[in-house]
């Protein structure tokens, strides 16, 4: 009996020892888990495929590069960034579905989309969910009226800035009678409305207005009508590939007046597709494509050159204007999260209070009345010569 009691006591002691030992073994694991900072989720909806792919691909690549660089430096205040990138296929309904997925995943903010149409499609989703949205597209309607776009910001220069820049150039060079061609989508329609607003203020008459689809393979019929009216210049509001096609058609028809386009052609895809026909095209553009030509006093130059070098190292090619819009969107979000932490409402407030932030598209000065924060000084007037961008002013 005594032997049995001693055995029972020893068994109980051994069991207690094993329990304590097991607890000690778990303690370091629990401590490690508690000390690891929770990742900050940031969503991105990009037009990676479809008609706007020439915009979305460099944006996707830029976002990946920046997220990797940030995490290598320790993330945001010690929190790694979990960047979730979805492709909307340049389709508005796909963009809405992507926004819903990201919102359900509790992302702190959404970057997107590449194009005006897909960006406008998700504005309502961001507003209703109370999620900060930073678009990379041009239409002023994305952020205006600000009272109805409380949660929405954007990094591309608004089309009213582009329209005023073009109108001023035309007026200063004595070109008063202008033909206007545009894509039949949100980007083209917004550009047309803003150019119609800017033109009269500079004494410009629009003698022809023609549209074409983003998927059209030939715009000769529209340009033939334009040619018959003998305008002093032609303004085209489009992105590749249609912007390149209309440029080639323009050259083939022998129109001998200036061809003015927009920052929608700010990538290598336009130059490659348009070929020699691109020479002579004039466009207001962000400064990235002529970074080396800028004076050293330009506040953006150092960052532009740094971005170019990093992108070329990672991808073996020069970044485009559109990649620059993604660069700015990512940095605006990171800057706001670093100040506000993991709180959507506070991130929105931090975005709205961002001033003096040097970006690829310009120096951002956001406010409760301006959710783009860029002026005409963010753009340079350029001309394509020998297949390369040249700074005019």
Explain what the structure shows.
This protein has 393 residues and is of the alpha/beta class. The chain has 2 domains: 202 residues, Rossmann fold (3-Layer(aba) Sandwich); 146 residues, Response regulator (Rossmann fold, 3-Layer(aba) Sandwich), CATH 3.40.50.2300. It is 46% helix and 17% strand. The chain has a 5-stranded parallel sheet with strand order 2-1-3-4-5, sandwiched between helices. It has a 4-stranded parallel sheet with strand order 7-6-8-9, with helices on both faces. A 3-stranded antiparallel sheet has the order 10-13-14. A hairpin with a 4-residue loop joins strand 11 and strand 12. It is globular and about 70 Å long. The N terminus is likely disordered.
Quick summary:
The protein has 393 residues and is an alpha/beta fold. 46% of the residues lie in helices and 17% in strands.
SSE topology sketch:
Blueprint: H1 2-35, E1 40-46, H2 53-72, E2 81-87, H3 92-104, E3 109-112, H4 116-129, E4 133-135, E5 152-154, H5 159-172, E6 177-183, H6 186-201, E7 205-212, H7 220-228, E8 233-237, H8 242-252, E9 259-260, H9 268-274, E10 282-286, H10 301-315, H11 321-340, H12 344-352, E11 357-358, E12 363-364, E13 379-385, E14 388-391
Parallel strand pairs: 1-2, 1-3, 3-4, 4-5, 6-7, 6-8, 8-9
Antiparallel strand pairs: 10-13, 11-12, 13-14
Give descriptors for this structure.
single chain, 393 residues, alpha/beta, Rossmann fold, 5-stranded parallel beta sheet, 4-stranded parallel beta sheet, 12 helices, 14 strands, 46% helix, globular
């Amino acid at each position: 009996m005594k032997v049995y009691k001693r055995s029972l006591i020893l068994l109980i002691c051994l069991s207690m020892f094993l329990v304590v030992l097991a607890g000690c073994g778990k303690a370091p694991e629990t401590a490690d888990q508690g000390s690891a900072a929770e990742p900050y989720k940031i969503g991105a909806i990009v037009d990676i495929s479809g008609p706007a792919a020439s915009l979305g691909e460099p944006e996707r690549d830029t976002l990946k590069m920046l997220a990797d660089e940030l995490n290598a430096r320790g993330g945001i205040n010690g929190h790694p960034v979990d960047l979730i990138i979805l492709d909307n296929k340049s389709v508005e309904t796909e963009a809405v579905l992507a926004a819903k997925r990201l919102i359900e995943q509790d992302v702190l903010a959404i970057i997107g989309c590449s194009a005006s149409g897909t960006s406008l499609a998700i504005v309502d989703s961001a507003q209703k969910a109370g999620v900060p949205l930073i678009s990379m597209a041009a239409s002023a309607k994305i952020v205006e009226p600000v009272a109805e776009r409380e949660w929405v910001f954007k990094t591309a220069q608004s089309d009213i800035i582009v329209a005023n820049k073009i109108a001023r150039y035309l007026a200063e060079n004595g070109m008063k009678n202008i033909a206007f061609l545009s894509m039949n989508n949100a980007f083209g329609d917004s550009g047309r409305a803003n150019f119609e607003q800017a033109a009269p203020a500079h004494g410009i008459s629009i003698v022809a207005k023609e549209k074409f689809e983003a998927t059209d393979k030939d715009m000769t019929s529209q340009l033939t009508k334009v040619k018959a009216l003998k305008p002093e210049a032609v303004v085209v509001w489009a992105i590749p590939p249609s912007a390149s096609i209309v440029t080639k058609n323009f050259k083939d028809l022998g129109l001998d007046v200036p061809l003015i386009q927009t920052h929608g052609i700010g990538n290598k895809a336009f130059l490659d597709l348009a070929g020699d026909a691109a020479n002579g095209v004039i466009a207001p553009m962000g400064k990235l494509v002529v970074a080396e030509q800028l004076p050293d006093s330009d506040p953006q130059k150092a960052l532009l050159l740094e971005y170019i070098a990093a992108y070329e190292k990672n991808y073996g090619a020069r970044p485009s204007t559109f990649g620059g819009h993604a660069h700015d969107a990512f940095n605006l979000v990171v800057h706001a999260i670093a100040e506000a932490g993991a709180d959507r409402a506070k991130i929105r407030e931090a975005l709205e209070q961002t001033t003096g932030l040097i970006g690829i598209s310009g120096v951002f000065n956001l406010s409760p009345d301006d959710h783009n924060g860029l002026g005409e000084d963010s753009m340079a007037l350029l001309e394509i010569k020998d297949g390369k961008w040249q700074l005019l002013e």
